[in-house]
Specification:
- The protein is of the alpha+beta class and 144 residues long.
- It has one domain.
- 25% of the residues lie in helices and 26% in strands.
- The protein has three helices and six strands, in the order H-E-E-E-E-E-H-H-E.
- Strands 1, 2, 3, 4, 5 and 6 form a six-stranded mixed sheet that branches.
């Protein structure tokens, strides 16, 4: 789904959320964009202006990462060109390090728990990029 489709869907039907996954072209940085539904907090209407976009991302095999939540109208311009899919079609990935997100989404990847050496990490990156390209629902980009 496109970003505009996602915004319309979460405004129209509370309870849905959508996720866009982005892998940098070198396979070493993952970004996860989630557009949660505008939740009805007990009132009569769900205010679509409260719809936000949440970002989590970071380098693979790094203990640091980044995350923000911003109103959808202020989301980064390039986040609007991603491929989004219903969050329910993905395993639970919130809060995980980048390599663990990839392993959860693609269980055929090696378990990052046992990857320690540089050679193993490079092999993981080559493999993650190949399966992400083949999957068709990741956005591969030179910018992140």
């Amino acid at each position: 789904m496109t970003f505009d489709d996602v915004i319309q869907a979460v405004k129209a039907k509370p309870g849905q959320s959508f996720t866009g996954l982005v892998l940098r072209a070198d396979g070493r940085y993952l970004s996860v964009f989630t557009v949660p539904s505008c939740e009805d907090d007990g009132g009569d209407d769900c205010d679509p202006e409260w719809t936000s976009i949440q970002f989590e991302g970071g380098l693979l095999f790094s203990s640091s990462g980044e995350g923000i939540s911003t109103p959808w109208r202020m989301s980064p311009r390039w986040s609007r060109s991603l491929i989004y899919r219903p969050s329910t079609s993905l395993p639970e990935i919130a809060g995980l390090c980048s390599e663990y997100v990839l392993h959860k989404v693609f269980p055929q990847l090696p378990n990052p728990e046992g990857i320690w050496g540089d050679h193993e990490r490079r092999a993981f990156v080559v493999q993650d990029l190949a399966v992400a390209k083949e999957a068709g629902f990741f956005t591969i980009t030179g910018q992140i």
